[in-house]
Amino acid sequence: MRSTGTSSPSSTDTARGLHLLVGIVLGGLALVEIWVQPIFQTGLPGPRPVLSALVVLMAGAIAVIDRWPLAGAGAFSSLVVAIGRVGDVDQAGFELALGGLVVAYTFAQREGGRRAWLGGGMLFVGFLGWSRLTHAAGDQPDDLVVPLLLLGAAWYVGREVRHHQQRSDSAAAASVAEERSRIARELHDVVAHGVSVMGLQASSALASLPPDRVEERASMQAIESLGRATLEDLHRMLGMLRPGTEQAPTEPLPRLAQLANLCATASTLPAVSLSVEGERRELSPGVELSAYRIVQEGLTNVRRHANAHHAWVRMGYLPGSLEIEVRDDGDGSAAPIRFGHGLVGIRERVALHGGSLAVDAGEPGFRLRILLPTGGDS
Q1: What is the largest CA-CA distance in the chain?
Q2: What percent of the chain is predicted at pLDDT more than 90?
């Protein structure tokens, strides 16, 4: 079971671990070539102690490139030139080339704008200098051109990955903002109804009070005036949340009593079964609205993505909370778990009430499990 409340190791920590591993492996291979025997063509011939120190520093630059991209790329480029200067002319430098591809990709993926071009330029100059220092008689032009082309390709791929991630992040942020605006519009109607009822009750109480109850009448008048002013503020806020000429909905907001009808009208699925566990009780309008919308979004996801023959909805009334489960018998492993528009809406409603959301994809089907605190049930 995967839950949004628990965090696995972040992608940043994973990337840093991978760069540390790459640095250790490439540094180890280079040390073997220096002290034991060449693995790739001529290896790294030259003064062993100095080359060993430079190789260790090179491995360190690769290991920190994800944390400090500019410093890591600059250090790596300088060390490549130093290794070419200190070592013999016939260096193969296979480990340097692989390290350069990793550094070029990572730098372009982490940095944008002028800094990306600066890092790419440092790497280009570094490897150009190394090629000139290790140029030997009989070397062909492609011995220089091919490594530089591969370096440029790695840099370009990293840059494109960065742009793709930025577009994905922007789309996700827009989706969250859209869902929050939709939730705020619906909650406006819930709150406005409650304030309106309070105002009507204050008016009724004021009418029933005799004229000599001066203090009580003043209190009721204050409540009535405050309720009217609050409703006006809420309507102004709603005007900001509804762009253009969009009008407020005229139909009442759904409640849990309408779930059976929702499940029965999910006609694009062969069957939807609804079960209720525990003793039904009246919940606050906000919780009921969120629970209804969560089930609605869950069934929409099933219809669109699951390719299922049956879906099950379970509502569990627990002490102090409401448990919601939506599952199906489709192929939940056909696609990775992603927070698209539907799941974004569910996640935002769960967060609004301080609840928890768990998703489980596999065999059979896909399952959503939500726990909404109900607090002081009304």
Answers
A1: 114
A2: 37
CB neighbour burial string for 147-182, b if at least 16 within 10 angstroms, e if fewer: beebbeebbeebbeebeeeeeeeeeeeebbeebbee
Q: Dihedral, CA atoms, 29, 30, 32, 33, nearest 10 degrees?
A: 120
What kind and span of H or E run contains 265? none
Q: Token match 């630059």: residue? A: 61
pLDDT beyond 90 at 248: no
Q: What is the pLDDT of residues 79-106, one digit of tens each?
A: 999 999 999 988 888 899 999 999 999 9
User: What are the start-end ranges of the H helices in the chain?
Assistant: 11-35, 48-63, 69-86, 94-110, 113-133, 142-208, 214-241, 259-264, 285-301, 341-352
Tokens standing for residue 218: 């003043």
What DSSP element (H or E) covers 306?
none
Q: Domains of the chain: which residue ranges?
A: 2-139, 172-241, 256-373
Class of the domain covering 256-373: alpha beta
Distances (CA, A) of 163 to 77, 115, 158, 345: 25, 15, 9, 26
Closest CA to 33 of 117, 95, 81, 85: 95
CA distance 13 to 24: 17
Distance, in Å, from the CA atom of 125 to the CA atom of 131, rounded to the nearest integer, reads 10
pTM of the model: 0.59
Query: What does each C-alpha distance from 245 to 69, 186, 269 come to in angstroms?
Result: 49, 17, 35
CB 131 within 8 A of CB 143: yes
Query: What is the model's pLDDT at position 8?
Result: 42
What's phi and psi for 203, nearest 5 deg? Answer: -65, -40
Residues 6+ apart with CB under 8 A from 185: 238, 241, 242
Tens-digit pLDDT profile for residues 133-149:
887 666 666 667 888 89
Cα 252 → chain centroid: 34
56, burial (CB in 10 Å: exposed 0-12, middle 13-18, buried 19+): middle
Q: Which amino acid is located at 135 in the chain?
A: H
The alpha carbons of the chain give a radius of gyration, in whole angstroms, of 32
